[in-house]
Amino acid sequence: MSTLDLLQLGFVRQALLAGAVLALLAGLLGPLVVGRGMAFAVHGTSELSFAGGAGALLLFGAGAVGWGALVGAVVVALVFGALGLAAHERDSVIGVLLSFGLGLGVLFQSLYTGRSANKFGLLVGQIVGVDTGDLVSLAVTGVVVVGVLGLAYRPLLFASLDPTMAAARGVPVRALSVAFAVLLGATTALGVQIVGALLVLSLLITPAAAAARLTASPLRATVLAVVFAEVAVLGGIVLSLAPGLPISPFVAGIAFATYVICRVAGSLRTRRRASRTRVPASSTATSTSSQSALASQSPRPRS
Amino acid sequence: MTGPAVSLTGAELRRGPRTLWSGLELDVAPGEFVAVLGPNGSGKTTLLQVLLGLLPLSSGQVRVHGAPPARGSAAVGYVPQQRALDPLTPLRGRDLVGLGLDGHRFGPGLRGRARRREQVHRALAQVDALDYADAPVGSLSGGEQQRLRVAQALVGDPSLLLADEPLLSLDLARQREVVELVDRRRREHDTAVVFVTHELNPVLPVVDRVLYLVDGRFRIGTPEEVMTSANLSQLYRTDVEVVRVRGRILVVGAEDAPVHHDVPEEVGVR
Fold first, then answer.
1. CATH (one of 3.80.10.10, 3.40.50.80, 3.40.50.300, 3.30.160.20) for B1-75+158-222
2. Higher pLDDT residue, A76 or B72?
Protein backbone atom coordinates (compact mmCIF):
# COMPACT_ATOMS: atom_id res chain seq x y z
CA MET A 1 0.00 0.00 0.00
CA SER A 2 1.17 3.49 -0.73
CA THR A 3 1.48 6.17 1.91
CA LEU A 4 -1.70 7.81 0.62
CA ASP A 5 -3.69 4.60 1.02
CA LEU A 6 -2.31 4.08 4.50
CA LEU A 7 -3.37 7.58 5.49
CA GLN A 8 -7.00 6.55 4.94
CA LEU A 9 -6.81 3.92 7.69
CA GLY A 10 -8.47 4.61 11.04
CA PHE A 11 -5.52 3.61 13.21
CA VAL A 12 -3.18 5.80 11.17
CA ARG A 13 -5.47 8.78 11.70
CA GLN A 14 -5.62 8.06 15.41
CA ALA A 15 -1.84 7.90 15.47
CA LEU A 16 -1.61 11.27 13.71
CA LEU A 17 -4.07 12.81 16.14
CA ALA A 18 -2.19 11.44 19.15
CA GLY A 19 1.09 12.62 17.68
CA ALA A 20 -0.30 16.11 17.05
CA VAL A 21 -1.48 16.49 20.67
CA LEU A 22 1.83 15.18 22.03
CA ALA A 23 3.82 17.52 19.80
CA LEU A 24 1.70 20.48 20.94
CA LEU A 25 2.39 19.73 24.61
CA ALA A 26 6.08 19.07 23.99
CA GLY A 27 6.42 22.31 22.03
CA LEU A 28 4.70 24.32 24.76
CA LEU A 29 6.79 22.88 27.60
CA GLY A 30 10.06 22.59 25.70
CA PRO A 31 11.24 26.22 25.94
CA LEU A 32 10.66 26.19 29.71
CA VAL A 33 12.54 22.88 30.00
CA VAL A 34 15.46 24.33 28.04
CA GLY A 35 15.30 27.62 29.97
CA ARG A 36 15.44 25.75 33.28
CA GLY A 37 18.31 23.57 32.05
CA MET A 38 16.26 20.42 32.65
CA ALA A 39 17.15 18.33 29.58
CA PHE A 40 18.81 15.68 31.70
CA ALA A 41 15.84 15.66 34.08
CA VAL A 42 13.57 14.88 31.12
CA HIS A 43 15.78 11.95 30.21
CA GLY A 44 15.71 10.70 33.80
CA THR A 45 11.96 11.12 33.98
CA SER A 46 11.45 9.12 30.78
CA GLU A 47 13.61 6.23 32.02
CA LEU A 48 11.68 6.09 35.29
CA SER A 49 8.46 6.30 33.30
CA PHE A 50 9.71 3.32 31.30
CA ALA A 51 10.35 1.43 34.56
CA GLY A 52 6.85 2.31 35.80
CA GLY A 53 5.28 1.14 32.54
CA ALA A 54 7.30 -2.09 32.54
CA GLY A 55 6.38 -2.77 36.17
CA ALA A 56 2.69 -2.22 35.42
CA LEU A 57 2.94 -4.50 32.38
CA LEU A 58 4.45 -7.27 34.52
CA LEU A 59 1.99 -6.94 37.41
CA PHE A 60 -1.28 -5.89 35.78
CA GLY A 61 -0.95 -6.60 32.05
CA ALA A 62 -0.84 -4.46 28.91
CA GLY A 63 -3.88 -2.37 29.89
CA ALA A 64 -2.06 -0.84 32.87
CA VAL A 65 1.06 0.31 31.03
CA GLY A 66 -0.20 3.88 30.59
CA TRP A 67 -0.95 4.28 34.28
CA GLY A 68 2.36 2.72 35.29
CA ALA A 69 4.26 5.05 32.98
CA LEU A 70 2.34 8.04 34.35
CA VAL A 71 2.94 7.12 38.00
CA GLY A 72 6.65 6.46 37.40
CA ALA A 73 7.12 9.77 35.56
CA VAL A 74 5.15 11.94 37.97
CA VAL A 75 6.77 10.47 41.10
CA VAL A 76 10.28 11.04 39.80
CA ALA A 77 9.38 14.45 38.38
CA LEU A 78 8.14 15.43 41.85
CA VAL A 79 11.48 14.36 43.31
CA PHE A 80 13.35 16.45 40.72
CA GLY A 81 10.99 19.37 41.19
CA ALA A 82 11.38 19.33 44.96
CA LEU A 83 15.16 19.42 44.55
CA GLY A 84 14.80 22.92 43.12
CA LEU A 85 17.16 24.59 40.72
CA ALA A 86 20.63 23.78 42.13
CA ALA A 87 21.75 22.23 38.85
CA HIS A 88 25.04 20.64 39.83
CA GLU A 89 23.52 18.58 42.61
CA ARG A 90 20.39 17.82 40.66
CA ASP A 91 22.32 16.24 37.81
CA SER A 92 24.02 13.68 40.00
CA VAL A 93 20.74 12.76 41.72
CA ILE A 94 19.13 12.34 38.29
CA GLY A 95 22.01 10.10 37.20
CA VAL A 96 21.56 7.94 40.30
CA LEU A 97 17.78 7.58 39.83
CA LEU A 98 17.98 7.16 36.07
CA SER A 99 20.35 4.18 36.19
CA PHE A 100 18.33 2.60 38.99
CA GLY A 101 15.10 3.01 37.05
CA LEU A 102 16.62 1.62 33.88
CA GLY A 103 17.83 -1.44 35.83
CA LEU A 104 14.37 -1.97 37.31
CA GLY A 105 12.73 -1.62 33.92
CA VAL A 106 15.04 -4.21 32.35
CA LEU A 107 14.32 -6.58 35.25
CA PHE A 108 10.54 -6.17 34.85
CA GLN A 109 10.80 -6.73 31.12
CA SER A 110 12.85 -9.91 31.43
CA LEU A 111 10.38 -11.31 33.98
CA TYR A 112 7.44 -10.53 31.65
CA THR A 113 6.49 -13.53 29.53
CA GLY A 114 3.76 -11.99 27.32
CA ARG A 115 3.95 -10.49 23.81
CA SER A 116 7.38 -9.06 23.11
CA ALA A 117 5.85 -6.17 21.11
CA ASN A 118 4.43 -4.89 24.40
CA LYS A 119 7.92 -4.85 25.89
CA PHE A 120 9.68 -3.26 22.98
CA GLY A 121 7.02 -0.58 22.63
CA LEU A 122 8.02 1.29 25.78
CA LEU A 123 11.55 1.80 24.56
CA VAL A 124 10.95 2.71 20.91
CA GLY A 125 7.27 3.67 20.92
CA GLN A 126 4.22 2.07 19.36
CA ILE A 127 2.15 4.87 18.01
CA VAL A 128 0.14 2.66 15.65
CA GLY A 129 -1.07 0.84 18.75
CA VAL A 130 -2.79 3.99 20.04
CA ASP A 131 -6.40 3.17 20.91
CA THR A 132 -9.37 5.31 21.86
CA GLY A 133 -8.57 5.04 25.58
CA ASP A 134 -5.08 6.38 24.93
CA LEU A 135 -6.56 9.25 22.96
CA VAL A 136 -8.83 10.15 25.86
CA SER A 137 -5.99 10.20 28.38
CA LEU A 138 -3.91 12.17 25.92
CA ALA A 139 -6.71 14.70 25.47
CA VAL A 140 -7.27 15.02 29.24
CA THR A 141 -3.56 15.56 29.85
CA GLY A 142 -3.51 18.05 27.01
CA VAL A 143 -6.35 20.11 28.45
CA VAL A 144 -4.77 20.09 31.92
CA VAL A 145 -1.31 21.09 30.67
CA VAL A 146 -2.64 23.87 28.43
CA GLY A 147 -4.95 25.09 31.21
CA VAL A 148 -2.23 25.24 33.84
CA LEU A 149 0.17 26.92 31.41
CA GLY A 150 -2.50 29.48 30.52
CA LEU A 151 -2.99 30.40 34.16
CA ALA A 152 0.58 30.26 35.38
CA TYR A 153 2.71 30.96 32.31
CA ARG A 154 4.10 34.36 33.37
CA PRO A 155 5.16 33.33 36.90
CA LEU A 156 6.47 30.04 35.51
CA LEU A 157 8.59 31.85 32.93
CA PHE A 158 9.78 34.35 35.56
CA ALA A 159 10.66 31.59 38.06
CA SER A 160 12.37 29.52 35.35
CA LEU A 161 14.60 32.19 33.80
CA ASP A 162 15.09 34.76 36.57
CA PRO A 163 14.54 32.84 39.83
CA THR A 164 16.22 35.30 42.25
CA MET A 165 14.20 38.23 41.02
CA ALA A 166 11.02 36.15 40.84
CA ALA A 167 11.43 35.14 44.48
CA ALA A 168 11.99 38.78 45.44
CA ARG A 169 8.74 39.69 43.68
CA GLY A 170 6.84 37.10 45.70
CA VAL A 171 6.54 34.38 43.04
CA PRO A 172 6.17 30.96 44.73
CA VAL A 173 9.27 29.59 42.98
CA ARG A 174 9.42 26.27 44.80
CA ALA A 175 5.72 25.46 44.38
CA LEU A 176 5.88 26.32 40.67
CA SER A 177 8.92 24.10 40.28
CA VAL A 178 6.90 21.16 41.63
CA ALA A 179 3.84 22.04 39.52
CA PHE A 180 5.99 22.26 36.40
CA ALA A 181 7.54 18.89 37.23
CA VAL A 182 4.09 17.30 37.35
CA LEU A 183 3.14 18.74 33.94
CA LEU A 184 6.45 17.55 32.57
CA GLY A 185 6.02 14.10 34.10
CA ALA A 186 2.56 13.65 32.61
CA THR A 187 3.72 14.78 29.16
CA THR A 188 6.80 12.56 29.37
CA ALA A 189 4.68 9.54 30.26
CA LEU A 190 2.56 10.06 27.15
CA GLY A 191 5.67 10.55 25.06
CA VAL A 192 7.15 7.30 26.39
CA GLN A 193 4.11 5.40 25.12
CA ILE A 194 4.12 7.09 21.71
CA VAL A 195 7.73 7.69 20.69
CA GLY A 196 9.34 5.54 23.40
CA ALA A 197 11.55 6.28 26.38
CA LEU A 198 14.68 6.57 24.29
CA LEU A 199 13.38 9.40 22.12
CA VAL A 200 11.28 11.58 24.38
CA LEU A 201 14.14 14.07 24.32
CA SER A 202 13.77 14.49 20.58
CA LEU A 203 10.32 16.01 21.21
CA LEU A 204 10.75 17.83 24.51
CA ILE A 205 14.25 19.21 23.98
CA THR A 206 15.29 19.29 20.34
CA PRO A 207 12.51 21.53 18.92
CA ALA A 208 12.88 24.03 21.80
CA ALA A 209 16.67 24.00 21.56
CA ALA A 210 16.37 24.63 17.82
CA ALA A 211 13.93 27.50 18.37
CA ALA A 212 16.23 29.06 20.99
CA ARG A 213 18.90 29.35 18.28
CA LEU A 214 16.62 31.54 16.19
CA THR A 215 14.97 33.86 18.70
CA ALA A 216 15.28 35.10 22.27
CA SER A 217 11.60 36.04 22.45
CA PRO A 218 9.77 33.54 24.70
CA LEU A 219 6.57 33.80 22.66
CA ARG A 220 8.25 33.27 19.30
CA ALA A 221 10.40 30.47 20.73
CA THR A 222 7.28 28.67 21.95
CA VAL A 223 5.46 29.02 18.62
CA LEU A 224 8.52 27.78 16.73
CA ALA A 225 9.02 24.86 19.13
CA VAL A 226 5.41 23.76 18.61
CA VAL A 227 5.81 23.98 14.82
CA PHE A 228 9.10 22.05 14.87
CA ALA A 229 7.66 19.36 17.15
CA GLU A 230 4.57 18.98 14.96
CA VAL A 231 6.67 18.68 11.81
CA ALA A 232 8.89 16.06 13.45
CA VAL A 233 6.05 13.92 14.80
CA LEU A 234 3.58 14.16 11.92
CA GLY A 235 6.37 13.96 9.34
CA GLY A 236 7.91 11.01 11.17
CA ILE A 237 4.63 9.11 11.24
CA VAL A 238 3.89 9.71 7.55
CA LEU A 239 7.40 8.78 6.43
CA SER A 240 7.40 5.59 8.51
CA LEU A 241 4.19 4.25 6.94
CA ALA A 242 5.38 2.97 3.58
CA PRO A 243 8.63 1.31 4.71
CA GLY A 244 6.82 -0.11 7.76
CA LEU A 245 9.59 0.95 10.14
CA PRO A 246 9.17 2.30 13.70
CA ILE A 247 8.45 6.05 13.77
CA SER A 248 11.17 7.00 16.23
CA PRO A 249 14.12 7.11 13.79
CA PHE A 250 12.10 9.40 11.51
CA VAL A 251 10.93 11.65 14.33
CA ALA A 252 14.43 11.87 15.74
CA GLY A 253 15.92 12.41 12.28
CA ILE A 254 13.61 15.29 11.40
CA ALA A 255 14.09 16.90 14.83
CA PHE A 256 17.84 16.61 14.52
CA ALA A 257 17.87 18.08 11.01
CA THR A 258 15.75 21.01 12.27
CA TYR A 259 18.20 21.63 15.07
CA VAL A 260 21.24 21.59 12.78
CA ILE A 261 19.59 23.98 10.32
CA CYS A 262 18.52 26.36 13.10
CA ARG A 263 21.94 26.29 14.68
CA VAL A 264 23.66 27.15 11.43
CA ALA A 265 21.07 29.83 10.60
CA GLY A 266 21.32 31.29 14.09
CA SER A 267 25.11 31.55 14.09
CA LEU A 268 25.11 33.03 10.57
CA ARG A 269 22.66 35.66 11.76
CA THR A 270 24.56 36.60 14.90
CA ARG A 271 27.74 36.84 12.86
CA ARG A 272 25.99 39.08 10.35
CA ARG A 273 24.56 41.21 13.15
CA ALA A 274 27.96 41.35 14.82
CA SER A 275 29.70 42.56 11.67
CA ARG A 276 26.97 45.11 10.99
CA THR A 277 26.22 46.75 14.33
CA ARG A 278 28.31 45.28 17.08
CA VAL A 279 31.72 46.40 15.85
CA PRO A 280 30.92 50.10 15.47
CA ALA A 281 28.75 49.98 18.58
CA SER A 282 31.45 48.45 20.74
CA SER A 283 34.18 50.72 19.39
CA THR A 284 32.11 53.82 20.17
CA ALA A 285 31.21 52.32 23.54
CA THR A 286 34.84 51.87 24.49
CA SER A 287 35.79 55.31 23.27
CA THR A 288 32.95 57.01 25.14
CA SER A 289 33.60 55.02 28.27
CA SER A 290 37.28 55.86 28.23
CA GLN A 291 36.39 59.48 27.59
CA SER A 292 33.94 59.56 30.45
CA ALA A 293 36.41 57.75 32.67
CA LEU A 294 38.97 60.44 31.86
CA ALA A 295 36.37 63.14 32.31
CA SER A 296 35.35 61.72 35.65
CA GLN A 297 38.82 61.30 37.02
CA SER A 298 40.91 64.17 35.76
CA PRO A 299 38.90 67.19 36.94
CA ARG A 300 38.13 65.95 40.41
CA PRO A 301 41.48 64.94 41.82
CA ARG A 302 43.52 67.60 40.07
CA SER A 303 41.36 70.71 40.38
CA MET B 1 1.59 60.08 49.90
CA THR B 2 3.13 62.30 52.53
CA GLY B 3 4.18 59.76 55.18
CA PRO B 4 7.54 58.01 55.12
CA ALA B 5 8.17 55.42 52.41
CA VAL B 6 9.80 53.14 54.96
CA SER B 7 9.31 53.16 58.70
CA LEU B 8 11.15 50.79 61.05
CA THR B 9 10.33 50.98 64.76
CA GLY B 10 12.23 48.96 67.34
CA ALA B 11 13.04 46.52 64.57
CA GLU B 12 14.96 43.41 65.50
CA LEU B 13 16.02 40.47 63.37
CA ARG B 14 17.42 37.22 64.71
CA ARG B 15 18.77 34.39 62.63
CA GLY B 16 19.10 31.30 64.79
CA PRO B 17 21.13 32.31 67.84
CA ARG B 18 22.49 35.47 66.21
CA THR B 19 20.90 38.87 66.44
CA LEU B 20 21.65 40.65 63.17
CA TRP B 21 20.37 43.98 64.46
CA SER B 22 17.95 45.22 67.09
CA GLY B 23 16.42 48.51 68.16
CA LEU B 24 16.59 49.79 64.59
CA GLU B 25 14.69 53.06 64.11
CA LEU B 26 14.63 54.36 60.57
CA ASP B 27 12.24 56.50 58.57
CA VAL B 28 12.97 56.98 54.88
CA ALA B 29 11.19 59.97 53.38
CA PRO B 30 9.90 60.07 49.79
CA GLY B 31 12.76 61.05 47.49
CA GLU B 32 15.39 60.30 50.12
CA PHE B 33 18.52 58.31 49.21
CA VAL B 34 19.72 56.08 52.05
CA ALA B 35 22.86 53.98 51.64
CA VAL B 36 23.18 50.84 53.76
CA LEU B 37 26.80 50.00 54.51
CA GLY B 38 28.57 47.33 56.50
CA PRO B 39 30.64 44.17 56.22
CA ASN B 40 29.28 40.92 54.81
CA GLY B 41 26.90 39.14 57.14
CA SER B 42 25.83 42.31 58.92
CA GLY B 43 22.26 41.92 57.72
CA LYS B 44 22.11 44.42 54.86
CA THR B 45 20.47 42.07 52.36
CA THR B 46 18.25 40.74 55.14
CA LEU B 47 16.97 44.26 55.71
CA LEU B 48 15.92 44.41 52.06
CA GLN B 49 14.21 41.03 52.39
CA VAL B 50 12.21 42.42 55.30
CA LEU B 51 11.19 45.46 53.22
CA LEU B 52 10.24 43.16 50.32
CA GLY B 53 7.94 41.22 52.64
CA LEU B 54 9.94 38.02 52.22
CA LEU B 55 11.07 37.82 55.85
CA PRO B 56 9.23 38.84 59.06
CA LEU B 57 10.91 40.87 61.80
CA SER B 58 11.70 39.00 65.01
CA SER B 59 10.22 41.92 66.88
CA GLY B 60 9.34 45.55 66.28
CA GLN B 61 7.39 47.03 63.43
CA VAL B 62 8.04 47.64 59.74
CA ARG B 63 5.83 49.75 57.50
CA VAL B 64 6.20 50.37 53.78
CA HIS B 65 4.01 53.27 52.69
CA GLY B 66 2.19 52.97 55.99
CA ALA B 67 1.27 49.28 55.66
CA PRO B 68 3.02 45.98 56.35
CA PRO B 69 5.26 45.06 53.41
CA ALA B 70 3.43 43.04 50.74
CA ARG B 71 5.17 40.56 48.45
CA GLY B 72 5.18 41.57 44.82
CA SER B 73 3.95 45.10 45.54
CA ALA B 74 4.07 47.34 42.49
CA ALA B 75 5.02 50.25 44.73
CA VAL B 76 8.37 48.63 45.53
CA GLY B 77 11.08 48.15 42.91
CA TYR B 78 14.06 45.88 43.48
CA VAL B 79 17.48 45.75 41.81
CA PRO B 80 19.22 42.46 42.67
CA GLN B 81 22.95 41.87 43.10
CA GLN B 82 24.77 42.25 39.83
CA ARG B 83 25.17 38.74 38.51
CA ALA B 84 25.65 37.91 34.86
CA LEU B 85 22.69 36.19 33.23
CA ASP B 86 23.34 32.88 31.51
CA PRO B 87 24.48 33.60 27.91
CA LEU B 88 21.72 31.36 26.54
CA THR B 89 18.87 32.79 28.62
CA PRO B 90 15.99 32.85 26.12
CA LEU B 91 14.87 36.41 26.93
CA ARG B 92 15.23 39.79 25.26
CA GLY B 93 15.79 42.93 27.26
CA ARG B 94 12.17 43.94 26.92
CA ASP B 95 11.02 40.52 28.14
CA LEU B 96 13.18 40.84 31.25
CA VAL B 97 11.71 44.26 31.97
CA GLY B 98 8.18 42.99 31.28
CA LEU B 99 8.64 40.20 33.83
CA GLY B 100 9.40 42.88 36.39
CA LEU B 101 6.03 44.44 35.61
CA ASP B 102 3.69 41.45 35.71
CA GLY B 103 5.81 38.29 35.88
CA HIS B 104 4.44 37.56 39.34
CA ARG B 105 0.81 37.67 38.19
CA PHE B 106 -1.19 34.56 37.47
CA GLY B 107 -3.76 34.41 34.68
CA PRO B 108 -3.39 34.58 30.91
CA GLY B 109 -2.63 38.31 30.90
CA LEU B 110 -4.24 38.95 27.54
CA ARG B 111 -5.83 42.27 28.45
CA GLY B 112 -3.95 45.55 28.51
CA ARG B 113 -1.12 44.36 26.31
CA ALA B 114 -0.79 47.71 24.56
CA ARG B 115 -0.50 49.52 27.88
CA ARG B 116 2.02 46.94 29.06
CA ARG B 117 4.15 47.45 25.95
CA GLU B 118 4.00 51.19 26.53
CA GLN B 119 5.13 50.86 30.16
CA VAL B 120 8.01 48.56 29.22
CA HIS B 121 9.06 50.98 26.48
CA ARG B 122 9.05 53.90 28.91
CA ALA B 123 11.14 51.99 31.46
CA LEU B 124 13.66 51.04 28.77
CA ALA B 125 13.83 54.65 27.64
CA GLN B 126 14.43 55.84 31.21
CA VAL B 127 17.67 53.85 31.35
CA ASP B 128 18.64 54.48 27.69
CA ALA B 129 18.40 50.77 26.89
CA LEU B 130 16.18 50.97 23.79
CA ASP B 131 19.12 50.26 21.47
CA TYR B 132 19.59 46.75 22.78
CA ALA B 133 16.05 46.02 24.02
CA ASP B 134 15.58 43.27 21.42
CA ALA B 135 18.96 41.57 21.84
CA PRO B 136 19.21 38.36 23.89
CA VAL B 137 20.01 39.45 27.47
CA GLY B 138 22.81 36.93 27.76
CA SER B 139 24.71 38.61 24.92
CA LEU B 140 24.85 41.98 26.71
CA SER B 141 27.67 43.39 28.82
CA GLY B 142 27.45 43.58 32.60
CA GLY B 143 26.70 47.30 32.47
CA GLU B 144 23.94 46.83 29.90
CA GLN B 145 22.40 44.01 31.92
CA GLN B 146 22.47 46.17 35.03
CA ARG B 147 20.68 48.98 33.20
CA LEU B 148 17.99 46.47 32.27
CA ARG B 149 17.80 45.45 35.93
CA VAL B 150 17.19 49.07 36.87
CA ALA B 151 14.49 49.31 34.18
CA GLN B 152 12.98 46.07 35.50
CA ALA B 153 12.80 47.65 38.96
CA LEU B 154 11.36 50.94 37.69
CA VAL B 155 8.78 49.58 35.24
CA GLY B 156 6.06 49.28 37.90
CA ASP B 157 6.56 52.99 38.71
CA PRO B 158 7.62 52.29 42.32
CA SER B 159 7.68 54.90 45.06
CA LEU B 160 10.33 52.87 46.91
CA LEU B 161 13.42 51.47 45.20
CA LEU B 162 15.50 48.80 46.92
CA ALA B 163 18.92 48.01 45.47
CA ASP B 164 21.21 45.21 46.64
CA GLU B 165 24.85 45.80 45.71
CA PRO B 166 23.91 46.93 42.19
CA LEU B 167 27.45 48.18 41.55
CA LEU B 168 29.28 44.94 42.27
CA SER B 169 31.72 43.94 39.51
CA LEU B 170 30.95 47.01 37.40
CA ASP B 171 33.82 49.27 36.37
CA LEU B 172 33.93 52.87 37.61
CA ALA B 173 32.22 54.41 34.57
CA ARG B 174 29.39 51.86 34.69
CA GLN B 175 29.02 52.34 38.45
CA ARG B 176 28.58 56.05 37.90
CA GLU B 177 25.97 55.45 35.20
CA VAL B 178 23.86 53.23 37.46
CA VAL B 179 24.11 55.70 40.36
CA GLU B 180 23.07 58.52 38.04
CA LEU B 181 20.06 56.54 36.80
CA VAL B 182 18.88 55.88 40.34
CA ASP B 183 19.54 59.46 41.42
CA ARG B 184 17.67 60.89 38.43
CA ARG B 185 14.73 58.62 39.16
CA ARG B 186 14.37 59.70 42.79
CA ARG B 187 14.70 63.39 41.90
CA GLU B 188 12.16 63.27 39.07
CA HIS B 189 9.63 60.94 40.72
CA ASP B 190 10.27 61.44 44.44
CA THR B 191 11.12 57.74 44.76
CA ALA B 192 12.69 56.76 48.08
CA VAL B 193 15.90 54.74 47.64
CA VAL B 194 17.46 52.17 49.99
CA PHE B 195 20.79 51.30 48.42
CA VAL B 196 22.89 48.46 49.88
CA THR B 197 26.55 48.77 48.96
CA HIS B 198 30.07 47.82 50.01
CA GLU B 199 31.44 51.06 48.72
CA LEU B 200 30.19 54.45 49.80
CA ASN B 201 32.26 56.53 47.39
CA PRO B 202 30.36 55.79 44.17
CA VAL B 203 27.13 57.01 45.83
CA LEU B 204 28.69 59.69 48.04
CA PRO B 205 27.70 62.63 45.77
CA VAL B 206 24.00 61.69 45.88
CA VAL B 207 23.45 60.02 49.23
CA ASP B 208 21.34 61.78 51.91
CA ARG B 209 21.87 59.46 54.84
CA VAL B 210 23.90 56.39 55.70
CA LEU B 211 22.87 53.37 57.75
CA TYR B 212 26.11 51.66 58.82
CA LEU B 213 25.61 48.14 60.22
CA VAL B 214 28.37 46.19 61.96
CA ASP B 215 27.73 43.03 63.91
CA GLY B 216 24.41 44.13 65.41
CA ARG B 217 25.53 47.73 66.08
CA PHE B 218 24.60 50.59 63.79
CA ARG B 219 24.78 54.32 63.15
CA ILE B 220 22.36 56.41 61.12
CA GLY B 221 22.97 59.92 59.82
CA THR B 222 24.47 61.98 57.03
CA PRO B 223 27.82 60.73 55.70
CA GLU B 224 29.54 63.57 57.59
CA GLU B 225 27.92 62.47 60.84
CA VAL B 226 28.41 58.74 60.50
CA MET B 227 31.74 58.44 58.72
CA THR B 228 34.06 59.53 61.52
CA SER B 229 36.94 57.68 63.10
CA ALA B 230 35.22 57.72 66.49
CA ASN B 231 31.96 56.26 65.17
CA LEU B 232 33.47 53.50 63.09
CA SER B 233 35.95 52.58 65.83
CA GLN B 234 32.97 52.07 68.13
CA LEU B 235 31.07 50.08 65.50
CA TYR B 236 33.99 47.81 64.66
CA ARG B 237 35.29 47.79 68.27
CA THR B 238 38.77 48.37 67.02
CA ASP B 239 40.91 51.31 66.00
CA VAL B 240 39.49 52.51 62.68
CA GLU B 241 40.60 55.65 60.94
CA VAL B 242 38.42 57.56 58.49
CA VAL B 243 40.28 59.79 56.06
CA ARG B 244 38.81 62.21 53.54
CA VAL B 245 40.92 62.52 50.42
CA ARG B 246 39.93 64.37 47.23
CA GLY B 247 36.21 64.13 47.99
CA ARG B 248 36.44 60.43 48.78
CA ILE B 249 36.11 58.73 52.14
CA LEU B 250 38.69 56.07 52.97
CA VAL B 251 38.28 53.71 55.90
CA VAL B 252 41.46 52.18 57.24
CA GLY B 253 41.65 49.44 59.84
CA ALA B 254 38.18 47.93 59.55
CA GLU B 255 39.69 44.94 57.73
CA ASP B 256 41.24 43.73 60.99
CA ALA B 257 38.05 44.07 63.01
CA PRO B 258 36.81 40.88 64.68
CA VAL B 259 33.44 40.68 62.91
CA HIS B 260 31.59 37.45 62.27
CA HIS B 261 32.15 37.24 58.54
CA ASP B 262 34.88 38.19 56.16
CA VAL B 263 35.19 41.92 55.74
CA PRO B 264 35.05 43.06 52.13
CA GLU B 265 37.59 45.27 50.49
CA GLU B 266 36.74 48.34 52.50
CA VAL B 267 35.06 51.50 51.44
CA GLY B 268 37.05 53.18 48.74
CA VAL B 269 40.41 51.47 49.31
CA ARG B 270 41.73 50.90 45.85
1. 3.40.50.300
2. A76
